[in-house]
């Protein structure tokens, strides 16, 4: 009890007749788990974590009489494993997760006197499960007194039974069962469908199962644009079918579909199409299916525009214009991706301004069909924010059921997709590049050019002819000194000498003449 066992011990003595391992950590019963204890008669493995039971886990246990697996996590049981336990009399599987009982489940339990399947997840089982049970078959062939036959206790309560046509045979079996088969709790309760929840088996009468049959009140509908349209189909089936709608071979969104039962075997499914447009026209298919098959019904929908513009192809008026009804339209605001419209209507004699409905048609200028938008009374502005940039559009506003007149349509072109912020960033990048190029030129270049160039231009014309008449060596020297790189930074002496020679002695200053003050490079700035 409460031991940290994760598997069946291997060193169990061969003459052990009873094993009880509870509240441990067993997770599976592998093949040949008890092959060395063939004398075993009682096996209790309650309240472990067993999820898997091998088909040969009970091999070599011909004397086993009692198997208890209560409170584990079994979702299925290999029922053929009980071929190796012909003497089994008690099988306890309550508080597991069993959700299916195959028809042959009890075939290999001929001597069973107690079967507990309560508190599992069983919803639908066939009566053939019990018709194939040898215990039930013997009771049906019994001709002598009941005392000669052993009773078999059957526990099936606390399961979420779904009381529809699939459970019809099992409910009939429960109602008719009697000794030697005894129900531990005969008040089995329905958990579904909703209208049968909480009812006892002996209170319900279940019909036979039926393949779905679909129908619709009208399979051809013609409606005006702008209205909310509801398509309806009725499905008669048992059990309750799954219903869905398709349009152009595509499954429609579930939040536009509502399905509810209107009787025991009939459901109604409705598809809502808000503000129907001509583009919504076509065939809508209501499909239904259960385990017996599927069927469908198609509804053809035709959407007629109430009116259309005479300024664009395909806009033909559906109703004559009322005299005196006119709408003045203007663009209040325009962006790259949208516009804001404003309009003012001169009301007709038959309508007050606050009671007028408007129809707005918007689309590309060259489009044959425009989007239709219906505007309620009291509204005189509308904004569109999902237009394409640099595209020509046309928009018209008119009183509902009237064709747009001259002046009620506006043609406009959306702006470029390049924003002002992007243009400003490009300009900043250009200015930064130009400034970087200017600052890359040495500052001394400007100083030399500004100070030395005027004096050179004034005195050099007289010296240059003499340089050309000088020696080649003098010419080479003069050529070398004529570059700006050879100019002294602090004085302009020696820029142009009459003799053209670089190595000539500097002419001494005249007596009595003041020598110009020396200026360093800082003064040049």
Jot down its keywords.
single chain, 525 residues, alpha/beta, Immunoglobulin-like, seven-stranded parallel beta sheet, five-stranded mixed beta sheet, disulfide bond, FN3_sf, Ig-like_fold
Give your account of this protein's structure.
This is LRIT2 protein. Keywords: Disulfide bond, Immunoglobulin domain, Leucine-rich repeat, Repeat, Signal. InterPro entries: Cys-rich_flank_reg_C, FN3_dom, FN3_sf, Ig-like_dom, Ig-like_dom_sf, Ig-like_fold, Ig_sub, Ig_sub2. The chain is of the alpha/beta class and 525 residues long. Among the domains are: 210-304, Immunoglobulin-like (Sandwich); 326-414, Immunoglobulin-like. It contains seven helices and 27 strands. The strands form seven sheets. It has a seven-stranded parallel sheet with strand order 1-3-5-6-7-8-10. Strand 21 (326-334) and strand 22 form a beta hairpin. It starts with 17 loop residues before the first strand and ends with a helix.
């Amino acid at each position: 009890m409460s031991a940290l066992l994760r598997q069946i011990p291997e060193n169990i003595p061969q003459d052990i007749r009873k094993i009880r391992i509870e509240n441990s950590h067993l997770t599976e019963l592998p093949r040949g788990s008890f092959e060395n204890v063939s004398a075993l008669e009682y096996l209790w493995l309650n309240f472990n974590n067993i999820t898997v039971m091998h088909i040969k886990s009970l091999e070599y246990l011909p004397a086993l009489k009692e198997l208890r697996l209560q409170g584990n996590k079994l979702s299925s049981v290999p029922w053929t494993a009980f071929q190796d336990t012909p003497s089994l009399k008690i099988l306890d599987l309550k508080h597991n997760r069993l959700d299916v009982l195959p028809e042959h489940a009890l075939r290999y339990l001929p001597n069973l006197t107690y079967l507990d399947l309560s508190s599992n997840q069983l919803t639908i089982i066939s009566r053939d499960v019990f018709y194939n049970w040898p215990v039930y078959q013997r009771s049906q062939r019994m001709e002598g007194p009941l005392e000669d036959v052993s009773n078999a206790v059957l526990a099936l309560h606390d399961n979420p039974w779904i009381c529809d046509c699939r459970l019809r045979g099992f409910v009939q079996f429960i109602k008719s069962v009697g000794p030697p088969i005894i129900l531990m709790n005969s008040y089995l309760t329905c958990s579904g469908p909703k209208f049968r929840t909480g009812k006892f088996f002996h209170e319900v009468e279940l019909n036979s199962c039926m393949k779905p049959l679909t129908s619709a009140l009208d399979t051809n509908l013609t409606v005006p644009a702008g209205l909310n349209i509801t398509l309806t189909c009725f499905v008669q089936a048992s059990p309750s079918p799954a219903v869905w709608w398709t349009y152009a071979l595509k499954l429609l969104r579930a939040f536009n579909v509502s399905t509810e039962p209107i009787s025991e075997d009939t459901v109604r499914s409705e598809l809502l199409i808000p503000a129907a447009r001509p583009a919504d026209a076509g065939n809508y298919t209501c499909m239904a299916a259960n385990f017996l098959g599927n069927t469908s019904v198609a509804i053809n929908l035709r959407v007629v525009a109430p009116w259309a513009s005479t300024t664009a192809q395909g806009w033909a008026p559906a109703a004559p214009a009322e005299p005196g009804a006119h709408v003045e339209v203007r663009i209040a605001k325009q962006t790259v991706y949208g516009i804001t419209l404003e309009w003012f209507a001169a009301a007709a004699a038959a309508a007050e301004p606050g009671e007028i409905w408007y129809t707005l048609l918007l689309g590309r200028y060259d489009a044959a069909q425009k989007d239709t938008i219906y505007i309620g009374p009291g509204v005189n502005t509308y904004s569109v924010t999902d237009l394409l940039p640099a595209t020509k559009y046309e928009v018209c506003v008119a009183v509902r059921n009237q064709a747009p007149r001259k002046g009620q349509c506006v043609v406009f072109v959306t702006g470029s997709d390049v924003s002002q912020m992007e243009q400003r960033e490009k300009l900043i990048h250009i200015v930064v590049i130009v400034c970087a190029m200017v600052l890359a030129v040495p500052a001394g270049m400007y100083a030399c050019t500004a100070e030395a160039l005027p004096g050179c231009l004034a005195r050099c014309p007289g010296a240059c002819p003499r340089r050309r008449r000088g020696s080649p060596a003098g010419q080479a020297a003069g050529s070398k000194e004529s570059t700006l790189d050879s100019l002294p930074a602090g004085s302009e002496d020696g820029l142009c000498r009459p003799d053209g020679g670089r190595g000539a002695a500097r002419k001494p200053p005249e007596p009595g003449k003041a020598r110009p003050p020396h200026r360093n490079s800082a003064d040049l700035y």
